[in-house]
Amino acid sequence: MMTTTPVALPFSEAAFALTLALLFMAPLAIAGVALINTGLGRSRSAAQSLLGNLAILAVSAIVFALIGATFAGVSGAAGHSFQLGGKPWGWLGAGPLFLSGLGSAAPQAQLVLLLEFLAVAFAGMVPWGSGADRCKLTAGCGVAAVMAAIVFPLAAHWIWGGGWLAQLGVNFSLGTGFIDGGGAGTVHVLGGFSALALIWTVGPRKGKFPKEGLATALPGHNSVYVLFGCLLALVGWLAWNVAGAVLFLHAPLASLPVIAVNTLLSASGAVVATFAVTRIRFGKPDASLCANGWLAGLVASTACAGVVTPVEALLVGVIAGIITPLLVELLELALSIDDPSGAITVHAAGGLWGLIAAGLFAPQAGQLIAQLVGIATLLGLVLPLVYLLLWLLNRVLPFRVDPDGERIGMDLHELGGGAYPEFVIHRDESYR
Amino acid sequence: MDASAGYFQSQIIPHCGLRSGGRQFILMLEREESMKYAGLLVMPAGFFLSIAAVLLFPAPAPRAAFVLCGLAVEGLGLAVAVRGHMEARGERRP
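Output (structure tokens, whole complex):
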């Protein structure tokens, strides 16, 4: 399969035009996930959920432009580093302030920045789905701002910007350094861990875990949104993975169709596996879990689509699809984690599996250890950091609405009107 | 120690001269909330173990073993943090 090199290759005009066109399609992945988040929430919070996604996109873009882009940096540009063990450890970018001089920057650097704008919005949207039906709009925007200003730039610099994780190959002979072409780590694992931190900070929805008995089922209100979101996400993901492979793995143009095929096969294997698992466990396939399985396959492919063969991509997807319904059940029933959108399973677990798979199937020696070091960084450093930041932010700007607001729904409470004004929203019997 | 008896609150805190922040800290420990934070503090230790493995062991086998040990420590920390955040059910819920 395609080999990767840390040295930037000359960027042809054809590659520039193709990558730019792909990046114009990549927001469809964000749109798909926004629809999925909304459909998996309750009808009385639908408008607030979708507006929240839009607001998060906007806030992320502004904060990243003003603060985050400076610290994220790009590979080969200036950055802050320290010496440890006789090797340089690049830990923070030192780009120009407020995107000054962007127009005269190298074409590849401009494209990386455009992808990072989309990635930071995506990473901010993932926890919003997990805080559905109980988090204020200001909370979503606050979390997005923290992610865009502090957490994402750090991860993006370490992984995409030529930081210490990207240089593990050069400095310590660990393969080609940490591989993450599409952002499984920088976007999905980061977003999934932020979702876990947000859930820990705000707690479960009212009535989700009664004092006695099993957790209350609070199913999503619109399976059509969820399943259409999956189709929409596929288009965006194909563009995202291929663009990421060109920018970060320096994939030759001839290998790009294989990367797209790998993405599709991973998602397909995942949804078929989830379909089979839910049919065996519950007697009938579960639509929302199948959607989660599809997304988990896409997420897993973001890390490894550029380094695996099609058969390996299918295997990666099948394993992601088997893990997804089992982990959703474990988190909800055994660990009392109320995650309406399944972000922890889909984005965190799917992303981690994809990163491991990239190490398992990549031909370079030491690649698996590089991937494991990257995972150790995300789990051991980034998750506690995100938790600390969200905990502090929650002290200043409480995330959770008051119980009455939660009862009447986020639409009425925060927006003054429902998403479906001509429909009678039935009384929720599960509210206790 | 029986947390429900309010041992710290009733017997130690009034006499130990702690200010309200200190009292809240001791009460937090008593309520087992410390598990949340203990788990999250253990996780960076696993990260530093992985980094130490990369720095100190040039040979692949011990390097991989210590990186895996670091991940195992992080997993333990995560398990403790998850346990600390779990909703109290049944008799344990106030």
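Residues 1-9 of chain A have pLDDT under 50 and may be disordered.
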